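Example: EthD domain-containing protein.
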Amino acid sequence: MQLIPSGISLTHVGYQLLMIGRRRQDLTPAQYRDHYENVHIPLMRNLTGDTFPLSHERHYIRREQGNGTDGAVTFPAAVLPGTSQAAFDYDAVAILTYRDKAHFDANWAFFEDPETSKIIAEDEAKFSEWTKGVFLT
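Written out as structure tokens, the predicted fold is:
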């Protein structure tokens, strides 16, 4: 999914954040994606207002239902032959695009504010394991 407001050109943006996220392991990939798209993103847009990124592009690792050796339901990543499943312990890659570092800083301030960070953390706990996530600028 990609959220780019109309009239915004991404050819001259100055700052991006790459996030690699992991779903809660008791959720299916479909449940994870549904919550991320239909609950978390609208919540973040509402909480952060004008500081929300110019775009918040998300890509999900394709996973197919299978059965583990113990009979438990698993969702291995659909990897190419020769690629290790161990390399895919995450479920989504997101690219957040900001006008510049100041725009990013204004958005990130919501994660440092005690009130909004609590709301964000409570929602993230419902669908993700962000402590196992990776954040790169």
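Helices lie at 29-48, 101-112, 114-124.
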